[in-house]
Amino acid sequence: MVVLPILLLTVVAGCDDSLGAAIAALQQRNAARALTLLEPLRSRCTRSSAFYEVLGLANELSENNTAAEESLRMAVRLDSASPRLLTELGATLLKNGKPLEASKALDEVLRLDPSN
Question: Comparing C-alpha atoms, which of 27, 36, 71 is closest to residue 51?
Answer without folding.
Answer: 71
